[in-house]
Q: What sequence folds into this?
């Protein structure tokens, strides 16, 4: 199917799937998202059934005082299983590891259930072991879910899909909570363990189906070479600010885990004391069932509130209140609620409320902000530290707090004393959590700015409220002016409309250079709200540039300005930049008399002998809107000797939309000296410049460098129309043009170009383009095989083979560019760098990085292609997408020329040179169409071929080629005409079955 047809079909399907838009999903993501949601929900239901039933059994047999032993032992088990999971990936392929782990979670439950019925099997410790295994299941389930989701979805897809997947546990809360009392009555409390095992195995079945149906998303080989450090060697070690920030983040999650365990212990202790304390026999069994039912209903009720909070409250609360206000909310509420519990009030219901609030906030808003806290850390180190927190820090903190609990219970046998001490622990740790959040906030803000400046952070993921606060704090502190300038530039880049709000209050306190930068940024979106600050500023001593910028802001923004105040600035003794600004403002908003005076001032500036006067006069033209009397000076100024004058005039042409001079802007792209000014002028025109730039970019007779600059300028314009233009041309362009378009799309801020490609083409559309490149490589490799050194010799053949090899390299480069739409640019760049090194260690490392990163349908073909194979092995590998059919060298050459639209200019010329050397016949269409090729050396090669193959045809067309724009081709034509006049008896054109025959 052609790409345009596929896009049309896809758009039709997407328009019908209204529910995809409702869930913020794309068509190609929907099935994977649903399967992951099904897996996570099934396993979570099984885990929650197991948690409730085991909690009741454990409290009934051991009491809440034994829980610290569970926490201590779970620390070792959690860390050990984390290491086991990581170790298995070094020996077993990942898709087998995740299924094996999911089965491992379920199978031991069968033996534990048998152990409850036959106590001798586990020496009577079956319930204790099940409770311990439950902690292990939590770790394994989270690790498996995280790994599988990261394999199935790219970094951009997971932002849309994971919130839906993660809500599976909230749905499971409701389902398990309301179903468990019924199941307990039906099968008994102890047999709930077998029901949990069945649900875990059902989840494992879904995961097995995922691993088989989407096996291309998983690496086939075990992970041996891929290391996080290989992604960016420059960040192998965390520097001071990042290291200290990481320690604070680890402290944040450790305190969160410690409070979770303390609150959970208090909750279960109160249940134990209220329902099970002192009960024996039948009463104990009845109370045990009451505990199970209470736990189930509590879980179900909590799940309903969690779902409502996650779907309707979390994102809005985070957006309005900010990340750190939300992060402080749980510890503040816990400490506030802990105070009455500390003095012995509302013990049972207070503990229940505490547990309810802790879990409600923990699994909704805290779960949502968790990944945000890792954003300032460089991406290549981010996942490693997330794993450390989840797999090492949290289990070890659980073990440490378990030791504290066990010691406290040992020295305080009285339950009421224990209760108060544990509430004191909760209050103290909650206050410590608040302090850590407050400290983390200041480090987060500073590191956020630095990371964004250095390109380690995607600005689309930044909490804008916190970033603005960080910029203000950085500017108010004493520091390097270059760093402050970077902060202003960063804010202007990510949120230009808020520059005035953030920066206008600090204008009097910064240097003149920064004042000018701030004012220029504010002038992009002038707002009358900041006029008092600007008016106060001009009362102070200012440099001419800053004063002019402030003057312009006031008279552009003020709804009713007094234009008479500008008249004093028109005097000849006033600095040129201020005089030009005042004249421009009068031309823009003055009365006829004032406009005449301003016109006279600008006329004298434009005709002045001093370069600075003419430059400022040209800049003033760009700020004015009334140019009737000054248009006569534009033509001479375009020929001015001063480059600065010409560049300033190009900006003025764009600013005043002088359409008759737009060709001058396009012409400015042709010269290195004026290219930057012409580019900025065209960018200022935005959509108005697109037709001119597209015409230039598609002109086949323009040099490739000029066309590349045209595409880059379209990318810098960056409007939705410009981006759509790039995307649609990317699907039809080929060779250097496609590469230029791809690079232009990547440079568009906020990843707007990447998002546009994914929104228009989708993941499958990008894969289709990658497969198109692979198909071209297959044709190229077949040509190299049929035109090998054993079959065709000579200098022309060597040149053609080298040109074909270069084409293959270019196609691979484009494939790597396409892969950046789908995967982390750092990973793709690291893989490309290692593969290009050609070293014995580098190539396997690059292949390993790709194997663990990409999941396209042609993954195996691409990896084998990059594995430095011979032509025979390449053809065998590429046979999956294009079976190889051997041809004779002449047939292969003619077949190549049929694909000439995909050939590079040099490869096309080499084809004709080789055909001339071996006197191979070509079709008239191949020769005559190539004779119209826009590149001169291709036409030269065709003429050389026709001189040997068909002199009669050449004689007929030579007269039309005398005026060829390429001087080498014209010289060649003149030489041939002179030669044919000396040899009038030339051959005649003959054709047999559409093939040019030699005569």
A:
């Amino acid at each position: 199917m052609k790409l345009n047809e596929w896009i049309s079909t896809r758009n039709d399907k997407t328009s019908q799937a209204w529910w995809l838009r409702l869930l913020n999903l794309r068509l190609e993501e929907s099935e994977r998202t649903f399967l992951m949601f099904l897996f996570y929900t099934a396993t979570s239901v099984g885990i929650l059934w197991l948690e409730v039933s085991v909690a009741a059994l454990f409290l009934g047999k051991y009491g809440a005082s034994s829980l610290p032993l569970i926490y201590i032992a779970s620390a070792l088990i959690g860390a050990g299983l984390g290491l086991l999971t990581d170790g298995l990936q070094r020996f077993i392929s990942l898709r087998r590891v995740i299924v094996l782990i999911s089965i491992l979670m379920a199978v031991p439950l069968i033996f534990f259930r048998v152990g409850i019925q036959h106590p001798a099997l586990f020496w009577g410790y079956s319930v204790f072991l099940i409770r311990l295994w439950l902690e292990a299941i939590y770790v394994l389930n989270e690790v498996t879910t995280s790994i599988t989701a990261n394999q199935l979805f790219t970094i951009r897809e997971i932002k849309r899909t994971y919130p839906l997947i993660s809500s599976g546990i909230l749905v499971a809360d409701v389902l398990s909570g309301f179903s468990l009392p019924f199941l307990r009555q039906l099968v008994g409390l102890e047999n709930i363990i077998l029901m949990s095992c069945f649900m875990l195995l059902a989840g494992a079945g879904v995961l097995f189906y995922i691993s088989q149906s989407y096996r291309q998303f998983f690496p086939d080989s075990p992970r041996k070479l891929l290391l996080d450090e290989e992604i960016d060697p420059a960040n192998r070690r965390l520097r001071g600010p990042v290291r200290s920030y990481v320690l604070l983040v680890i402290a944040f999650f450790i305190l969160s885990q410690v409070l979770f365990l303390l609150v959970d212990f208090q909750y279960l202790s109160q249940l134990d004391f209220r329902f099970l304390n002192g009960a024996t026999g039948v009463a104990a069994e009845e109370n045990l069932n009451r505990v199970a039912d209470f736990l189930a209903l509590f879980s179900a009720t909590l799940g309903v509130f969690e779902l409502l909070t996650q779907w309707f409250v979390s994102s809005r609360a985070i957006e309005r209140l900010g990340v750190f206000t939300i992060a402080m909310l749980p510890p503040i509420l816990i400490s506030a609620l802990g105070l009455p519990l500390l003095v012995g009030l509302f013990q049972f219901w207070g503990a229940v409320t505490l547990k309810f609030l802790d879990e409600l906030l923990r699994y909704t808003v805290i779960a949502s902000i968790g990944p945000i806290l890792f954003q300032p850390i460089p991406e290549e180190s981010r996942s490693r530290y997330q794993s450390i927190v989840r797999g090492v820090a949290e289990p070890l903190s659980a073990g440490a707090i378990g030791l504290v609990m066990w010691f406290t219970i040992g020295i305080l046998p009285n339950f009421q004393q224990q209760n108060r001490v544990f509430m004191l622990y909760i209050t103290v740790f909650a206050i410590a959590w608040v302090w850590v959040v407050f400290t983390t906030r200041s480090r987060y803000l500073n590191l956020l700015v630095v990371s964004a400046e250095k390109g380690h952070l995607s600005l689309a993921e930044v909490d804008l409220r916190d970033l603005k606060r960080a910029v203000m704090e950085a500017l108010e502190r004493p520091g390097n002016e270059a760093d402050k300038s970077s902060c202003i530039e960063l804010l202007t880049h990510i949120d230009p409309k808020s520059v005035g709000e953030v920066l206008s209050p600090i204008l009097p306190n910064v240097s003149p250079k920064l004042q000018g930068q701030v004012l220029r940024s504010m002038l992009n979106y002038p707002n009358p709200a900041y006029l008092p600050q600007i008016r106060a500023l001009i009362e102070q001593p200012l440099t001419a540039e800053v004063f002019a910028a402030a003057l312009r802001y006031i008279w552009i923004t003020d709804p009713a300005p007094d234009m008479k105040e500008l008249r004093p600035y028109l005097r000849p003794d006033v600095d040129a930049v201020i005089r030009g600004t005042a004249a421009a403002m009068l031309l823009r908003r003055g009365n006829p008399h004032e406009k005449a005076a301003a016109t006279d001032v600008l006329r004298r500036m434009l005709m002045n002998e001093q370069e600075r006067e003419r430059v400022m006069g040209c800049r003033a033209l760009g700020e004015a809107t009334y140019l009737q009397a000054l248009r006569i000076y534009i033509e001479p100024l375009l020929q001015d000797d001063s480059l600065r004058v010409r560049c300033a005039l190009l900006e003025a042409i764009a600013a005043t939309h002088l359409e008759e001079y737009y060709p001058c802007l396009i012409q400015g792209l042709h010269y290195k000296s004026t290219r930057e000014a012409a580019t900025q002028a065209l960018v200022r025109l935005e959509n108005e410049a697109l037709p001119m730039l597209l015409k230039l970019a598609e002109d086949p007779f323009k040099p490739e460098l000029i066309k590349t600059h045209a595409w880059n300028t379209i990318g810098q314009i960056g409007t939705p129309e410009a981006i759509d233009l790039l995307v649609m041309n990317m699907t039809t362009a080929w060779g250097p043009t496609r590469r230029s378009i791809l690079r232009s799309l990547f440079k568009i801020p906020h990843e707007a170009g990447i998002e546009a490609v994914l929104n228009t083409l989708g993941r499958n559309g990008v894969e289709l383009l990658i497969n198109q490149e692979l198909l071209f490589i297959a044709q190229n490799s077949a040509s190299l095989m049929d035109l090998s050194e054993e079959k065709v010799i000579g200098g022309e053949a060597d040149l053609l083979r080298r040109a074909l090899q270069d084409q293959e390299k270019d196609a691979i480069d484009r494939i790597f560019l396409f892969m950046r739409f789908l995967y982390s640019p750092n990973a793709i760049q690291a893989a490309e760098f290692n593969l290009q090194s050609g070293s014995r260690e580098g190539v396997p490392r690059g292949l390993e990085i790709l194997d663990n990163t990409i999941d396209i349908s042609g993954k195996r073909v691409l990896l084998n292609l990059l594995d430095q194979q011979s032509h025979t092995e390449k053809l065998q590998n590429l046979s999956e997408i294009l079976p190889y059919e051997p041809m004779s060298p002449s047939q292969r050459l003619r077949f190549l020329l049929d694909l000439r639209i995909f050939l590079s200019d040099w490869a096309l010329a080499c084809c004709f040179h080789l055909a001339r050397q071996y006197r191979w016949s070509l079709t008239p269409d191949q020769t005559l169409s190539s004779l119209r090729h826009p590149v001169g050396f291709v036409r030269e090669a065709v003429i050389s071929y026709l001189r040997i193959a068909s002199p009669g045809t050449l004689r007929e067309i030579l007269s039309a080629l005398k005026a060829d724009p390429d001087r080498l081709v014209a010289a060649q034509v003149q030489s041939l005409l002179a030669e044919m006049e000396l040899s009038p008896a030339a051959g005649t054109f003959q054709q047999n079955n559409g093939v040019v025959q030699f005569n």
Q: What stands out?
A: Residues 887-999 form one domain.
